Description:
heterodimer; A: 4-stranded antiparallel beta sheet; 4 helices; 19 strands; B: 10 helices; 2 strands
Amino acid sequence: MRRYINLLVILVAVVAAIPLFYTALAAGKDPGLVLKRVSGNENEIPNVKITAMDSQEKRLNRMFSITSSGSHDLRRESSFLSLDEDPAWYKQYVKQYPRYMRGKTDQGGFYEDKQMIAYAEIKPQPLHRSRVALYVGVLDKKTKKIKTMKMKVPGFTKQSYPSVWDVQKTGNELKVAAGMDTGIRVYRVSLPEKKITGDKVIAQREQAGRMAQYTQLAETDVNKPNHILAYQEEKVDDDGTVKEMTTFIYNYHTNETKKLRLPKDISLRDSDNWKFVYNGKTVYMAITKKNGGARLFNL
Amino acid sequence: MKSFVKLVNFEINRFAKIYWSLVAITILSQFTSVFLTVHCYISQANGIVYHQSLPTAQLAYVKHYGSISFIDCFGTVWFMGPIALCAAAMVFYIFLIWYRDWYGKHTFIYRLFMLPVERWNLYLAKAASILLMVLGFIAVQIILLPVEHFFFNAITPRIYRMDMTVADAVLSFPYFNLLLPGAAIDFLFHYGLGFTVVLVIFTAILLERSFRMKGILLGLLYGFLSFVLFWTPDFLFEVLLPGVLHQQELLWIEVATTAIIAGYSILLGGYLIKYKATV
């Protein structure tokens, strides 16, 4: 038996210590953070996920995720199995329509109403990577039939870095808003004819000046019907400082673009601390106050 | 089975002196790290507190300079150095475990080949002993941490100390994530992948031992092909056909690919040691 002492000592240490360590880690305390409804629609709670960090003297850093089902210490979660940080609606789509969801990863490209789920994406054509095409997939929720379309896109090359920002439906048409380095374009895709029937440039970098940059504002429900697209135009100096910032909304029904007025008593210098979010009715703006907390505006 | 256990024990015993020396160095060095970290902090604190000679000076020191925590002991060479030393020793031993049998005293591989056991067992026993010794180092570290934590708490005055659990300290120190990932499944993935790399290297070594000069090229080619195969699912489904597979599916395909690489490494290694490797 003495001959085996080294093997036995190592084996006992491995079998005892490693499982014990991971059992202790898994049994670690729930951070005890909860989501509590103060006001608003309770049905929206499954879509809410707050990631929080508790840092003590920048050394003891705890990352939490807080959802309606409780809170978790993210450090104790698998970095492999928690790869998908997708929102609840997206996971639901994958669960309910796994075949339709293959290859559909750009969450801004989804649209859902009572009848259908639509998805649009602009990507390079296979074997012709310098050319891009608009791919549209429509799922009929009742019949589960999938209709796919592939269309050549006018006004785009791979160098334009096009990406779909938003998809909406008006009548029998899908309206696909796409951002690229030259500006923003909205394409009209006829669902019965399966082709692009027109497009409109709603913002052009050349007209606004060479240093203009466009970004879509955050949407509360990216996949829900919404008649506006809210975006921002930033004009920056050569050194990258923001000279001018303008917020616009584009109405899919009227095809009109409207400029929004920002509050007068705010300084552009603090623009890094501005947060925007919009739903179908309102664009909200939040400004972090110097002493903590935030001011909220309806634009 | 009995002969396999005997061979594993034999391989471990051959490395035991160095192994336990490394464990002893780790224990001594890590306790030194805890002691020195606390000692430096307390000396500095006492120096400043002594000059102020106020009853609340210690509290003021903590507010101004910050408290000391168990994590502070991890960042020193005394603490991480022995871990790196053990890792380096194991990497070195992956090669030495084979080559010393050929180039050591009395061409020991000759005697090994003459043993009345399946030669296949030699390959598996060497692989198992490497895995056991690596996991043994991890186990030693896991056992050491609570003891070091107790020692840290015992020598650090309460007023200067930021209290935390051992788990919190380990999870908050990024380098420990490699050694001890936060979830058990990650531990299996990390060490499973590491063990597969060991198997690929073993098979490459046996190719070299079987075909000598040509074998060096074959070994390198084998390593390269295994590397390519490992990255194929990622390249296929992240670059060429992005989004066709869901993330979880891709992960399990990668796990399966790793298992396949480990499997054919064992098969090829077993074949080589049985039929091709010569003294």
